[in-house]
């Protein structure tokens, strides 16, 4: 029977699937920048690089669009866990994943596809995608624990902290939110303007 858990599973699969595609393509672009001779040079060919670049940005954008839906549907699918540390941490890791993916998209859009031609920026984009995928995997694994009682990390020897949570008061949370928004405004308004990198 169709219910919140089924809807959440569908939304989570869309998010994870598109993010896996974005991560693999982003890491492929970064790898081709540092190891142009990999796979006989086919991975770093212009046609393949353009395809991986477009697939990474498309996957990240689609995943970002569905991530809030997956997060909200997951909270409805998790029964009787309103005060659960796992539920709190699921939202924390979801927020981290959203932030990393948003950074990945903003960096690629502002600097253009030429970002992959600079080793330092390419490494940063690849690392951002890898961290974003780790946070996405962690959030989805916690979701699996909440909804089905099992997760991907059950078979892993390591597990990021998730069984305990620090809950801040609404006043402290609001203050941190204001500080974060103010910092973002200062960086956007007063920071140096980013220029698109021309592709050779």
Describe the structure.
There is one protein chain. The protein is mainly α and about 200 residues long. The chain has one domain (about 5-190). It is built from 5 helices and no strands. α1 packs antiparallel against α4. The longest helix has about 30 residues, at about 45-75. The chain is globular, with a radius of gyration of 19 Å. It starts with a helix and ends in a 10-residue tail after the last helix. The mean pLDDT is about 80.
Number of helices: 5
Distance N to C terminus: 55 Å
Query: How does the helix and strand content classify structurally?
Result: mainly alpha
The biggest beta sheet is recorded as:
none
Low-confidence stretches: none
Compact overview of the structure:
This protein has 200 residues and is mostly helical. It is built from five helices and no strands.
Write a concise keyword list for the protein shown above.
single chain, 200 residues, mainly alpha, 5 helices, 70% helix, globular
In terms of topology, how is this protein built?
Layout: H1 4-34, H2 46-77, H3 85-111, H4 119-147, H5 170-190
